[in-house]
Amino acid sequence: MCGIFGLIQLDTDKELVFQDIQPNLESLFSASLSRGSEAAGLAFSTDKGISITKVSERASQFLKSSEYTQLVQKLTKNNHHISAAIGHARLATNGSHKIAQNNQPVISKYAHIIGVHNGIITNYKALFDKLIKKDTKTKRSLPDLDTQVALDYLECILFGNTKNARSITKAAIEKAIHSLFSNIEGTANFALLLPNQKKVVLATNHGSLYYKKTQDCIYFASESIFLEQIENTPIKVQPNTSVIFDLAKSNKKIETISKSTNHTPFKNKLSVLKKHTID
User: Fold this and answer.
1) Of 34, 117, 180, 276, which has the fewest CB atoms closer than 10 Å, so is most exposed?
2) How confident is the model over 222-272, as pLDDT tens digits?
3) Is the separation of the CB atoms in 255 and 273 below 8 Å?
4) Global pTM value
């Protein structure tokens, strides 16, 4: 049922670079393979922007791929200071993994939210109907992916039907998560980046989400066993709750690289930045 994982930098004086978190991050990625082997993806939030890479390959192949090598080179060569990372190992349910846009991390309609999800929302079509009733101005078509519907629903509640971001409180985020969980059937764990708000949200409706604190970071995963290599006791996110963390450093520009099974890479930095830069 997919695996999600990642890290959040604690608000310390240290500026994290990729080499600081690489061993633990790759260990979490490899462990998550047991939850999904059809696609893999990562999103990094740094002081220079958000980099998203996803491929229609298992995590073990992704870590050896040219796309991952390219991502690592960019993060290290340009000395990115990392504030968060979210990752996904996919077991395809809704939406073919052969189509890049169906793989995760997912970007919401207006790019206010970037997220990964594991679980199955069995009534996502009904949730989409509620979304279009809330937002009658935006032209939407039903996506293949339940995760896309969930993120768009949250975005609509928090920001309305606009590209313009407004400041929102933690209480507003908690209320939006509560609304989502009240309107879905099935299981759902989320790790969400909110670039403009400089926040990361961990949320679950059934309690299969854990995190551990280290001196510099919080590491999280959808199974506590995935966090074994990291010291300290795991903390469970309780069912139907969310935990919200502030990001130390972030930048709202987004670049996406994705590859589907036909091995045709998609990389159009100019158009992606134009499409997903939030004003």
Assistant:
1) 34
2) 989 889 889 889 999 999 999 999 986 555 566 665 555 543 333 333 223
3) yes
4) 0.86
